[in-house]
Amino acid sequence: MMALNSELQSSQGTIGALKTSVKDLVFQNQELLEKNISLQESSAEALKVSSCLSEAQSSAVQQLRFELSHCTEELDSLVSLSISLLKGQEPNPIMLFGSDSRAIPSDEDLSEDFESRLAQVKCLRHKIEDLRSMISEHFATQLSSVCHVQ
């Protein structure tokens, strides 16, 4: 009986720590999603008026588009890292530290890159939905194992 109590307490502690970790990941994911959406909205507005912009303003639009692109890459990396952790796999060290390929693309690169970025964002959205499902399944599995012990 004492061994079962000890095992139950240990399991509950582990589940509590896991819940906290997942909550932190979900919170970080939500922050990045909100930042990404905000940047996308800002970028869309900037694209509408970009033909009427001064050179300084045009440069700011370029930087905004670049930051949106970088944010998307970072969010993709975080989602991939979260999925691998939930699957119990060793995380890719490159993903742990994030990517740092921050060369500012030229105007030509940005215009050609628009369609591929849009496709990347759509793919990322699907990966985020998958991550959310995996987290839900993980919690359900953890809760069912706790209920079984009790």
From TrEMBL:
Protein origin, superkingdom: Eukaryota
Domain Centrosomal protein of 85 kDa-like CC4 coiled-coil span(s) in chain numbering: 3-40
InterPro entries: CC4_CEP85, Cep85/Cep85L
Pfam families cross-referenced by the UniProt entry: CC4_CEP85
GO cellular component, one term: centrosome
UniProt name for this protein: Centrosomal protein of 85 kDa
Organism the protein comes from: Geodia barretti (Barrett's horny sponge)
